[in-house]
């Protein structure tokens, strides 16, 4: 039950982009096409779950026993950057077809603040290892959901007229605002 | 004083929030009140100035291929310093800004300035650039925080402008209001840049 | 000085140099801020306890007991118990968990409540901090309620929910209820079960 609660909260109620404002850069940057947003989403799910697994182990087996919790930010960001590189290299060797699909999105993930943010949040929430990984996966799926919804709307927007001053970021942000309004309806689901 | 242009650049012409559209996450997340804008802006400015300074000073010691890693270490250090100092001396503000303090590390403004400016410049211009960008960011998010606080809560810097139980446009302090306010601010900025040819 | 080439040796040395320098700086600042941080946290705890209880003269933070994830701060005046502050939480808030400090008098009545950490919606859920909502609980005796349960009016109870923030109001009741149940179970003398726990576990933290 608790696990289901975590999933629903992470996926819909506290949607990472639309309610917690993490990962806005890729959300606005990679949401022109539905197909690319699926690719980006898949890469984020993969890296986020992995990052939470590793940062959990680092936090509980290195930082806490050594009493250097204050090094959390610096270690986590380093681990994430390192992890993204490793994933890239392994995918290139082991699964070239998957690499073809996800490859170009991987480097962008280091700067996705959602990855670092969620790793830190999971520690703050005192999740267990399993909960932490599930939480991260649900958050990442929520991110993908928001990205795909956004891309779908933006594809339609290409055929619509709106004031030229709104072109680019402003119109995207206002669409995001309306999406966020819709997602507020999920509040109280758990 | 020709170096002044490094400072003024970030205030308006290349305002990180409103023109370059960098650092969107904190811009949206912490601007539920004007005071948060100042707190977040000050923390970011501190990190920007010192990381720019150190990166400009050490630029010849950092081989090209590992520069990003080196920048991240430097930035993360200053972020942790801000984090610890705020926890110690302004615990209430720290509680409101919460997770967004450690996330200054991944704020694209800082890595962006390190990469685009500090690693190629001397110490003084780098400091001025950091200061200008930081203050530009602070102004932008404080403006946004003020708009959201006035419309959504009927107050500014916690001073009530309307009667205690008056209805306010709540949506502006909720997440959708953040997106919509930010969208219109950028649109206004675009318009102004076009009109006055800046 | 010319820029260093990207040879392996240079890369490792440079990163090592920077990491060492930065770690030293961090360690220094950490040691500098360690005590103020601890002091700030302690002050927050003590102030919260002070806010919810009548005057006391012991140091409840040193006598704190943890039972089922709640922290109990017994307060005494000249050795005579005058109440207990309970740090409680709920996970049912609009944005998940929030923490409350509830002060109980020895007879089980609520003295006062403060909201500790919360991420509720500004302007809606955050109104739980305001007296209009919170003061409904002051000197409330939960045992006098139906089924000894705190509920908002919408659910057939007696608490006026914050308008447009029923979820936060329900969660608030949930947190207080949790504190009340454990407080009654563990701290009200006369309950034989309690006396045993206090005798056997009282000394331990």
Range of helix content of chain A:
over 70%
Per DSSP, what share of the residues of chain C sits in E-state strands of 2 or more residues? 15-25%
Rough outline of chain A: globular
The order of strands across the largest sheet of chain C is 1-2-3-4-5
Number of strands of chain A: 0
Portion of residues within helices of chain C: 25-40%
Number of helices of chain C: 4
Q: What would the principal axes of the Cα set say about the shape of chain C?
A: elongated
Oligomer: heterotrimer
Helical segment count of chain A: 9
Radius of gyration of chain C: 24 Å
Computed over alpha carbons, the radius of gyration of chain A is 17 Å
Mean pLDDT of chain C: 80
**Strand segment count of chain C:** 5
Biggest sheet architecture of chain C: 5 strands, antiparallel
Give the topology string of chain C: H per helix, E per strand.
HEEEEEHHH
Quick synopsis:
The complex is a heterotrimer of chains A (190), B (198) and C (205). Chain A is mainly α.
Keywords, please?
heterotrimer; A: 190 residues; mainly alpha; 9 helices; C: 205 residues; alpha+beta; 40% helix; elongated; disordered C terminus
């Amino acid at each position: 039950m608790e696990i289901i609660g975590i999933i629903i909260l992470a996926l819909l109620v506290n949607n990472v982009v639309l309610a917690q404002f993490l990962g806005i850069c890729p959300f606005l940057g990679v949401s022109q096409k539905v197909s690319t947003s699926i690719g980006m989403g898949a890469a984020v799910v993969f890296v986020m779950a992995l990052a939470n697994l590793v940062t959990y182990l680092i936090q509980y087996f290195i930082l806490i026993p050594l009493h250097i919790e204050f090094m959390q930010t610096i270690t986590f960001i380093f681990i994430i950057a390192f992890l993204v590189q490793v994933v890239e290299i392994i995918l290139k060797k082991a699964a070239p077809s998957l690499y073809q699909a996800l490859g170009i999105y991987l480097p962008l993930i280091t700067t996705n603040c959602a990855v670092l943010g969620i790793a830190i949040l999971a520690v703050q929430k005192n999740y267990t290892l399993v909960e932490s990984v599930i939480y991260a996966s649900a958050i990442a799926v929520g991110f993908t959901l928001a990205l795909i919804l956004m891309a779908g709307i933006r594809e339609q927007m290409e055929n619509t007229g709106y004031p030229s001053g709104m072109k680019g970021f402003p119109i995207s942000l206002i669409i995001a605002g309306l999406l966020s309004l819709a997602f507020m309806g999920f509040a109280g689901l758990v | 004083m020709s170096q002044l242009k490094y400072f003024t650049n970030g205030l308006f012409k290349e305002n990180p929030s409103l023109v370059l559209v960098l650092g969107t996450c904190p811009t949206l997340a912490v601007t539920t009140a004007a005071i948060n804008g100042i707190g977040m802006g000050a923390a970011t400015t501190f990190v920007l100035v010192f990381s720019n300074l150190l990166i400009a000073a050490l630029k010849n010691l950092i081989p090209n291929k590992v520069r990003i890693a080196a920048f991240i270490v430097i930035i993360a250090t200053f972020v942790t310093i801000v984090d610890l100092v705020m926890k110690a001396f302004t615990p209430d503000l720290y509680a409101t800004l919460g997770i967004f303090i450690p996330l200054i590390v991944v704020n694209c403004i800082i890595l962006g300035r390190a990469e685009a400016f500090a690693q190629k410049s001397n110490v003084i211009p780098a400091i001025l650039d950091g200061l200008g960008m930081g203050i530009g960011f602070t102004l932008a998010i404080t403006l946004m925080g003020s708009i959201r606080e006035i419309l959504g809560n009927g107050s500014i810097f916690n001073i009530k402008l309307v009667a205690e139980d008056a209805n306010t446009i709540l949506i502006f302090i909720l997440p959708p209001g953040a997106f919509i306010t930010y969208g219109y601010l950028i649109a206004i900025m675009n318009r102004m840049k076009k009109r006055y040819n800046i | 000085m010319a820029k260093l080439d990207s040879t392996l040796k240079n890369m490792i040395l440079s990163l090592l140099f920077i990491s060492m320098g930065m770690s030293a700086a961090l360690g220094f600042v950490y040691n500098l801020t360690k005590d103020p941080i601890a002091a700030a946290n302690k002050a927050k705890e003590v102030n919260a306890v002070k806010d919810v209880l009548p005057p006391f003269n012991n140091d409840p933070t040193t006598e704190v007991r943890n039972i089922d994830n709640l922290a109990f701060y017994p307060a005494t005046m000249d050795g005579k118990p005058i109440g207990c502050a309970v740090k409680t939480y709920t996970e049912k808030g609009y944005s998940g968990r929030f923490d409350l400090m509830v002060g109980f008098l020895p007879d089980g009545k609520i003295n006062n409540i403060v909201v500790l950490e919360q991420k509720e919606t500004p302007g809606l859920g955050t109104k739980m901090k305001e007296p209009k909502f919170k003061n409904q609980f002051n000197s409330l005796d939960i045992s006098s309620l139906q089924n000894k349960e705190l509920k908002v009016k919408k659910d057939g109870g007696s608490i006026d929910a914050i308008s447009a923030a029923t979820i936060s109001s329900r969660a608030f009741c949930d947190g207080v209820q949790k504190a009340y149940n454990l407080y009654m179970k563990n701290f009200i003398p006369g309950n034989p079960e309690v006396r045993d726990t206090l005798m056997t576990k009282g000394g331990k933290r």
